[in-house]
Amino acid sequence: MGTWSILIEEAHSSAGVSQRPLPGWLLHAQDAAPLLPHRTSMAMGEGMQQVLPWSPGTWRGMVLRVSICLFAVASVRDTVADFEFFSDSPAFWFMNTMMLLQIVWSLGVACVDIYAMRNRKVLHERGLVLLLVVGDGIMAFLTFTAVSASNSALTLYVGDVDFCRRVACGQIEHSILRAFIVWCLAATSFLSMLELLVFIF
């Protein structure tokens, strides 16, 4: 019957009082106690999905990853369109490489999100979330570095050496702008995963 019932029975027997049935509220509390951890964990999982809309395994998380892929593809397309200008600077090579890595990383995570939604799985395991935090953090940092380097190189070419009089820089400017949007989305994903990791731990 539990600890409460044993203590009450001992008190009744020592006082010479006939045993009485336990109150209904105490019986219900004893029956519901083993179910509380399971219900609490389920409620926490559902609550974190509502509080953190960009968490993995959700529609918004998948849309965020797909958006990163689309803007990264657009950035690579604009860079390749001015291949003569793109091939002269290591900064643009670095930015183009980071956009390709963002496509691979975000597309892989988007596939995991689709799998989780189809099978109704909650992707709140500590190991998986920690992997996403590290991956998103590295990708966001390197993307910001590549965008900053490319923008500095373009500023040098436009303002100092007048290189854009001979080569059209419009496509490169569009490519850097789209790469900056990719960084903003990647930083949003990193902060969301970091907040989710704090909730889990």
Short key terms for the protein model shown above:
mainly alpha; 201 residues; CASPL-5; elongated; CASP-like protein; 79% helix; 2 domains; 8 helices; transmembrane; CASP_dom; membrane; single chain
Proportion of residues in helical segments:
over 70%
Which runs of at least 5 residues are low in confidence (pLDDT < 50)? 25-44
- Quote the average pLDDT: 78
The tally of strands reads 0
How would you describe the overall organization of this protein?
The chain has 2 domains: 1-51, no CATH class; 53-200. Helix content is 79%, strand content 0%. The protein contains 8 helices and no strands. It has helices at residues 3-15, 24-32, 36-51, 59-81, 83-86, 90-118, 126-159, 170-200. The longest helix is centred in the C-terminal third of the chain and has 34 residues, at 126-159.
SSE map:
Elements: H1 3-15, H2 24-32, H3 36-51, H4 59-81, H5 83-86, H6 90-118, H7 126-159, H8 170-200
Helix pairs in contact: 4-6, 4-8, 6-7, 7-8
Brief summary of the model shown:
Belongs to the Casparian strip membrane proteins (CASP) family. The protein has 201 residues and is an all-alpha fold. The protein is built from eight helices and no strands.
